[in-house]
Amino acid sequence: MWSSSWIFVLAAAGSAVGLGNIWKFPYITGENGGGAFVLLYLGCVTLVGIPIMMAEVLIGREGRYSPINTVRALIQQHKSSSMWVIIGWMGMLAGFLILSYYAVIAGWALHYIVQLANGSFDGATAEFANDAFDSFLADPWRMVFWQTVFMVATIFIVARGVTKGLETAIRWFMPMLLILLVVLLGYGVTSGGFEQGFDFMFSFHWESVTAESVLIAMGQAFFTLSLGMGAIMAYGAYMPSNASITKTVVTIAVLDTVVAIAAGLAIFPIVFANGLEPSQGPGLMFVTIPLAFGQMPLGALFGVVFFTLVSFAAITSAISLTEPALAYLVEEYNAKRWRVAVSVGVICWVLGIGTVLSFNLWSETYVVGELTFCGFIDYVSQNIMLPLGGVLIALFAAYGLPNTVVGSQLGLREGPFALLWKVVIGFIAPVAVLIVLIAPIFDVVLEFLGLG
User: Fold this and answer.
1) Torsion region of 331: left, alpha or beta (phi above 0 gives left; psi -120 to 50 gives alpha)
2) How far is CA 434 from the centre of its chain?
3) Distance CA 170, CA 160 (A)
4) Domains recognised in the chain with CATH numbers
5) Three-state DSSP class for 449?
6) Measured between alpha carbons, how far is 59 from 77 in angstroms, rounded to an integer?
7) pLDDT tens per residue, range 131-181
8) Cα–Cα distance between 14 and 22 in angstroms, integer?
């Protein structure tokens, strides 16, 4: 069990704060209406993200097992349908699949720490930055090396257990991540492009808000909080009984959002100050940012700080992705934790080789349509399994558990707040997530019919 509710906050926030916070949130904010998009996002977090996170935590704390065995135990205890157990299986599998390629991308950040530290980007041109990234992606051996380094670090941490492994890592990594972010934010404020960066993210451009913007905001709110993959449920199982789920989840959501906004205010001033293009997606992190740091005084130092920040964010997410499968196998087979951790790590590492090859030797090999191996794993896990898992978690909390269980876990008595919870978790949240899940399929059908 976590030693305090604050450690749970840090652990869950570490799971939520990942690569998407560092570059995706700032980028999609600027492209979808700036401040208008931030309001949409906060609305989605409030109506969808926080309720589903509360549901996932309360299920985990009520069951006190790994996600699969937690749902099994609650099904038996409350005589619910055995079909609900799919929640645990889907979450565990989704987390495992995501970790397989997440470790590869995180390995890129480790590679760039070394590259910036040795001065490779000092005075670099845009052509050099592009060529350096392309050259790295074309070399499967270098990618596998850094993927391996990241996986070894992750497995070493989770193998040590909740207190010695997860909690110790969280105690160090999360404060250091926040300190590094403050340092970079201070640098961004003084870089000369802060006003442009601030305007890019927060000027209200309602004309840029479309129906797709609403879907993007919903998806970002859902995925950034690590919902539907079993990680929050597994962490909830270790949560002290006297901690308030509502207050804790709201704190996590606020911290996650603050980190995302602060990351944008740290990154985009640097981009604009150097006259670079902010709309590059993944290239923003691995081409534009190294190029920017290479042009500025003490750029190598701050570049190392930036990619160390990215690595810390990645590893806190990675250990949460590992925990659901690890906890289940330890419980199911009464096996030693370190042996299971190594086994899970090796299997995940082997699966990750497919992602490595998707960027070079298998770059023109497609699994479905135009999806490479990596693209297919990413699409199935994030676009299908996670939202579907989130819907099932919400419905299980609303209809699969007695009101007395939910009420005792959340501290809700009969009355308007209990009714509001039931409406949000039993209708609003699952319907909203289903819209996110179905909308892309609907668009494909319209396009096929020539109506899109």
Assistant:
1) alpha
2) 19
3) 13
4) 5-448 (1.20.1740)
5) coil
6) 13
7) 888 899 999 999 999 999 999 999 988 888 766 777 788 788 778 878 878
8) 13
